[in-house]
Amino acid sequence: MGNTTSNTEQQILASAEKLFLQKGFSATSTTDIARDAGCNQALVHYYFRTKENLFNRIFDAKFDSVMDFIDSSMKDDSDIFGNIRNAVGAYFRYLSENAYTPQFIFNELMQNPARRRHIREAFLTSRRSSQVFARIQAMVEKAAEAGTIREIDPLDLIFDGMSLVVFSFITAPAFVDLLGRDSSSLNNFLEHRKEEIITLLTQGLRPASSDAGSPRHESGTERQL
């Protein structure tokens, strides 16, 4: 009975995710989800109560898996440039395997303030994101103290990296289509974008030549993640 319950719940989640991505949140009903999952609508309400709860469960699982991808890709915390390359590469791999997710999340951010609040809370306050962001903050501060990089708010680095990667996946299909290219060109374009983003982030972090190698000795309160 326990396995049946778990399997039914997972099937509902899988069907909801598929339909949300295909049709959008607003155009998907719990009846649609139940039909796709092969169960009755009452079971959808029994496990999740509302469609919003379904969305939140799916988003939270996706977000935690992104954080896991990024965290596991970073090896040596003293090598910030290597970790940027690894993290960007991991994020590209994740989105390549979940190609419709960026556009779906972007649409929900624009259309629904309530879900925008949930996404913001997951980004800033979830346990997994707090762990990963704290690790990135420590790396950034240590590298800036050593003069390896210019001083930067860690949140700016995180936002720059994530937004550049996500925007590439949102716009690449249309861009390649406008050029009349095929799917192999899309893969090549994304690979090029990955390398370009890594270059932009790493070169943008390097201190001016006059400051290189000079540890900073400044006081003041920095914004916390």
Spell out the key features of this protein.
10 helices; TetR/AcrR family transcriptional regulator; single chain; Tetracycline Repressor, domain 2; 225 residues; globular; Arc Repressor Mutant, subunit A; DNA binding; 76% helix; mainly alpha; DNA-binding; disordered C terminus
Question: Can you give a write-up of this model?
Answer:
This is TetR/AcrR family transcriptional regulator. GO terms for molecular function: DNA binding. Keywords: DNA-binding. By secondary structure, the chain is mostly helical. It has two domains: 49 residues, Homeodomain-like (Arc Repressor Mutant, subunit A, Orthogonal Bundle), CATH 1.10.10; 155 residues, Orthogonal Bundle (Tetracycline Repressor, domain 2). Helix content is 76%, strand content 0%. It has ten helices and no strands. The C terminus is likely disordered.
In short:
It comes from Candidatus Coprenecus avistercoris. GO terms for molecular function: DNA binding. The chain is mainly alpha-helical.
In angstroms, what separates the terminal alpha carbons?
A: 43 Å
Mean of pLDDT: 86
Number of strands: 0
As a percent range, the share of helical residues equals over 70%
| Tally of separate helices | 10
CATH fold-level assignment of the largest domain: Tetracycline Repressor, domain 2
